[in-house]
Amino acid sequence: MTRRRAPLALAGTLLLAGTLLLAGCSGSDEPETPEPSASSSPAGPGSGTPTPAAAPEPPRDRACYQLDYTEAVAPTVEVASTPCERPHTSMTFAVGPLDAVVDGHLLAVDSERVRGQVARACPERFTGFVGGTTEDQRLSMLRPVWFTPTVDESDAGASWYRCDVVALAADERLAPLTGRLQGVLGRADGRDRYAMCGTAAPGTPGFERVICSAKHSWRAVATVPFDQAGYPGVAKVRAAGDEPCKDAGASAADGALDYKWGYEWPTAAQWQAGQRYGLCWAPD
C-alpha cells in the first residue's frame, strides 16, 4: 500500500486562505531459531531453510539527511544520513517506539491507528524541540515531518517512528538547515533565520511564501488565534483580524503614520484540518 502525507503547509495545516489587504492611516535480536528435532538436519547453506532476518536498527536521533521535498512528505524514506557538518535539509529530533499492539493483535505499520499515533507524537515533540512560543512557531518556516518503517522492515520486526525537522524555502522546496536547531525559535537570530516572508503583498499577483533569507518584500508579523470549537464563519474570522493586524502593521512601521498591513484568515476546510488562526502581514 502506498501512502502519502498531505503537503507541508506553509502557515498551518493548509494555507490557501482568503486575503484582505488594507492600508491604515492611524492606525520532532535476531529471533531465536528453534533447535532442530532429533530427526532433522541443521540448516546450512543450500539447505533451503531461510534464517530469520534481524530487525533493522532504528534511526539515530540527531542524525542529518539531505532530503528533497518529495522525500520529506513520504511516509517512509531510505536515504542514508549525512554528517551534520555537511549540507543537509533534515534533522531527526525524536525517535520512539510504535504502539502497534491492540488487544494482543499486531497492527499493520500503515494502519490508521499507527499513523495517527505518529501524527500526534511528532508535532508535540517538535514544539518542545524548537522552542519559542506558539506564535513563534506559526510564524516560522520550520515544520515537523515523520517516518515509519517500510512494510518489509516492519515484517522483519522494525517498530519505530522518526521525527525530523525541515525548513520550507518556498512552496514544495526545502531550505538548508544551519546552526543549532534545539531551541532555535527561542532565540532572536533563529526566529529571524527561519521566519516566514512573502515575495509580494499577500493576495496579490506574484505573492509566494518564502523563507525570509530569500528575496522578499513582506513578512508575517503576528497571528490571530481562535478558540472556538466550530468554524465561526467567514465574516467573523475575517473581521477578527482587523484590529490586531492593523496594530501589528503599525508596530512594524515603527511609528509611521502611513503604513500597510495584510490579513489571511482560515477557511472552513483549513479550520477542520486544524489551522485555527489567521496571519497578519506587513511590508518588510
TrEMBL record:
<feature type="compositionally biased region" description="Low complexity">
    <location>
        <begin position="35"/>
        <end position="54"/>
    </location>
</feature>
<feature type="domain" description="Septum formation-related">
    <location>
        <begin position="75"/>
        <end position="280"/>
    </location>
</feature>
<protein>
    <recommendedName>
        <fullName>Septum formation-related domain-containing protein</fullName>
    </recommendedName>
</protein>
<feature type="region of interest" description="Disordered">
    <location>
        <begin position="25"/>
        <end position="60"/>
    </location>
</feature>
<keyword id="KW-0732">Signal</keyword>
<dbReference type="InterPro" id="IPR026004">
    <property type="entry name" value="Septum_form"/>
</dbReference>
<feature type="signal peptide">
    <location>
        <begin position="1"/>
        <end position="23"/>
    </location>
</feature>
<dbReference type="Pfam" id="PF13845">
    <property type="entry name" value="Septum_form"/>
</dbReference>
